[in-house]
Structures
1.
Amino acid sequence: MTKKNINESFIENQKAPIQIPLDELVNLDGLEYAHYVLQDRALVEVNGDGLKPVQRRILYSLYKMGSNPSGKTIKGSRVSGETIGKYHPHGPTSVEGAQENMGQAYKTRIPMFKVQGTLGDYPGDISPAARYYEIGLNKQSWELVAELSQKSVSYQATETGDELEPVSLPIRFPYLLINGTNGIAVGYASNIPPHNPTECMDACIAYYKGKIKTPKDVLKYIKGPDLPTGGLIMGVDGIAEYFENGSGSFIMRGKYNITNLPRGRKLIDFYELPYGISVENVIERINKRQDEGLFKEISEVKDLTDNKRGLSCAIYVKAGVNAEKVIDDLFKYTQLECKFPVNATALVNGVPTENLSILQMIGGFCEFRKGCFILKTEHRLGQLANDVHKYDGLLAVLVDIDKAISIIRNAKDSAEASAKLIKTFKIDESQAEHILSMKLKQLTKADKNDIIAKAKELKAEQKRLTEILSNEELLDNAIIEELKETKKIIASDRKTEILSVTNEELEQQAKEQAKISKMLDKDIDCYISMVDGNVYKELELSDNSLFKSTSRGRSLLITEDADILEIENKDIPLTINNAISLNTLNKLSSKVISVVSSEDNVIVASTDGGANIIKAPIKEVGKLCQLAPETSLILAQNTSDNESIAFFSESGKIAKVDLSKIRQTRQGAGLVKAHSMADKVVGVLLVKSNEVIVTYTENTIKYTLVDDCPSKGRGSQGYQIHRLKKNEKITSVRKEREYTTQEATPRGAGGLKR
């Protein structure tokens, strides 16, 4: 029964139920529409360019309109009209919406357009109508279309049948992985996060080299999602899960600064929000919770976002309130912490496929890229064969150029000239036509040696490309070289920071945080700790602890310019899970090199202007010491008299000075000379008895007991602890934990047998 017959039956007998066989029902328009939504709107092809049809058609329209990275931009409404009129006849809403999404830096990891005007600069920013902005292909999107002229992809008829369009674009980077995708279709949903461009290219190169065999191997190259809005990702278990299984989730969290305001108030400035969350979303959620009786500690919330400042949600906290507890509640009750559900669903050779591993997505791109490269190379070989054939004909004519010119001049028409050239010089019709197409001036000036050299060059390229296509290893290496060039174009630093903790550790930290939050109003003992420039507090001593303090005490930040800045311990987050960057605490202009207590002496060292030291107590915020011009600090730590300061030269010498022998001086004094070693200082350490010093060259490692290194006065020229070969230098130094006599035995000049 046809659709028409069904409609007629219904009209004729509206009261009677229509009897339709099930097999006919499922083959009606509904199924056709579902199939269309899956393949042409919602899901992308893994073994293709990873673009939705509307995205592909916009890029192709720009390419056909002559857009390129160095050219002018084109009115957005004109691009939309061209796309709708020739390739995507579905109205302006979908096309213009796709244009905006592809060009907005906060939605896509690599924006596809250079923009004149604005498409919306941050989440919540209203995009203008297409007639108010201009777009064009940038250097990144050019990597998606550059090979269209090289016949590296196939074409199909458009929906209207009036034009041809590429089935896929000949992309040179994994668009699906880098920019991610989302879509909802009949029975399927897809949500794949963006990833870092540099990391993705490294993974693809490793794939071609045979270094990636499992999804776990991918983690060596791609650390995890890299979201356009930055922020934090809490933990690595969720990442490993979706890498392996194609589904799972990870926790996103905003980044913030805490600023002390007059009269005890504080400002919590969230300057990076989770992906897809706007400041408007956060303010709306806070206001709703305040109506429910929460967030009484918050006096005001402002959206300070603008084009110059960027994303900013300013939260003002009342005087006497612990900002850390407010932050914990913000993460708990607002979208400043939220989950990103991963559902890696896409088309695999046209078939909707769920739970795709990251290896399948990388492999899909790499195989597609290989296919494009082969087609491009075959096309080039065809051009080369034609060119070589033409040059062979030209060389045959150049044997007697005067005779050839005479034939051309005396012939009645081109047909006669062609026939005589073919007969005289034993060339074919295509060669003769090439010669006749040349001007006589060009023909007379043609240099035989130049022609021979050019023909030789073409044949060499022909041979090289033929060898590449016939050898899998050479083929992969050629693709790798292309990927390396593309990597240079799209390379980008990571925006999203990933905290390397497991789900189990996160759960434990959450329990500790809940327990600790009840104690925040009490003055409790804690330890100030630091990892990779991020500071936090702990309740128990750890390997990362710097010093013991109290929750209501203060800590001091020391910068490389010798500035001292104060921070209240209650504003330092508890646990590494919430750790924040030192340099964000007070928006410092110079790099923080350490966090110290105000209770003990601080030893300061500098090597930029010579090896200099002081030992001084900190009495007030300000300047720790006076530095010589063009000099900066490399060490500032709390110390006691049972320690020594050790300077290491690139020639393998150590100058060790007992701190008990260094006279205490006043804060703000100038530095004094620490030793008389002649060569360059490569490191400074505070060391204790029984600790082990580790010195490195490019090729060797040396372990030395601190106790085997004699202490000298400030005039010491150093003591040799690492014997070096000619032209060998010390590159770095570090120290290890204490060794017992059972673990280590001194030998020779500070040597250590392990």
Note: The first helix runs from residue 3 to 12.
2.
Amino acid sequence: MFANNPDDTPVNVCSAIVAQGLCCGCGMCAGVCPSQYLGVQFNMYGELSPRPQPESVCSGCGLCLRVCPMSEPSPPTDRIAAELAPQWGQVSPDAVLGFHLRYLVGYSAADGHRANGASGGMGTWVLETLLAKGLVNAVAAVGPGVIPETGAICGYRWCRTAADARACAKSAYYPAELSRIIQYIRSHEGRYAVTALPCAVRALRLAMRAVKCLRERIAFIVGLTCGYGMSAFAAEYVCADAGGNPWQLHEITFRIKQNQTPSARVSLIRCVSGQRTDGEHVSLQRSDEAFGKAGGNRWFTRRACDYCDDAFAELADVCLMDAWLPAYLRDVRGNTVVVVRHSAVGALLDEAVAKRDITLADVTRDEAVRSQSPLLWFKRRLIVERIRSARKAHAPLPTLRTDLYRDDLSPLEAAYARVLMHMRDASPRAWLDSGKDPVAFRRRLRAPSLAAGLLRKLIRKGCRSCSE
């Protein structure tokens, strides 16, 4: 049992995590809550967060804190990974990529996987293969369609067929939470796979440590790399910038591939908004326009993301990511870097390569790391200034692996990190205060956006000078 709050109410994630700005919105707490005290809803800033349910009482059991990936008492990621290593196979440790068997790059040759999926379509191939081989009864993945419990326009759903998996093929840069999925697994025997970002992967492993039926029923975790999570406001901003109605956004589809784009980094985003009865507005916009600007400036991101140092879903059985490497960027069809941890996944890949169902080649450790270098700069380097600023402000922090971070930031990098933190905090309120008008919104953030752009140029110039 955890100690009570000063007002004698039980300590739970609402008081210890959400109120401190550390919630990542994974929904695991609500999924395991034995008294059904917690539910997940959007807050006023477009973020999914747990909140008390009407006519329910917190028992004070503390289970929600034990499964929370941002809870300070929880064990660090590398300790959990070391516990998993024996069941994965002959894995080797790595301070950046986590434990691994192999690093691979390539794509699925199955019809439609590559064209309709993110990067090389390997995520769809993995899910379909787990289902086809009977290794799992169902796969939980994020796909389009309104989630009634939260009103989200996409979210987790069960895939039981190849068609279901293909419907969840594209990336979804939109809040998604696991509570309904976890509640289902707890009440239904079977073997399941779950796709998840690093924070949710960590939550899954913590929950599997704490809840026996989850440990027995979750057979595979498929991880996806992530730099930061974005609120629903990011989707609204993209919609509004393309001329749509952000107040009535019904659908958003990311990663639509086009042969005309200059590189694999650039794709299209489709938004559908407006009154269904009066005619909907459908827009297409390049991903390097409004969405790219929002991501580059860390608009609409959560504070919790500032303290996540796991880029490669280190606790997942396999991790998939875009091959952002010079040799692959010009191939707009997309390629996937695969970090294999579980030997069973490695065997499936080897079998498929032999049958020419997929095309994969080995890559070096440095190439795998380099494929996500901007993400790692944010997660493993700029994190130093974010931690320093939090400690200076006496703000709470989650479990951190400070031995992984080099405390040698340049003054320019430190200043850049502080500007990004400012925009992270200011952007949600600016979006609301601007009436969700993208022009008025950008005007409110013009000064820090210009400062961030200048600092980026100076940092890049300094990096080039050092390498010459």
Note: The CA atoms of residues 434 and 440 lie 5 Å apart.
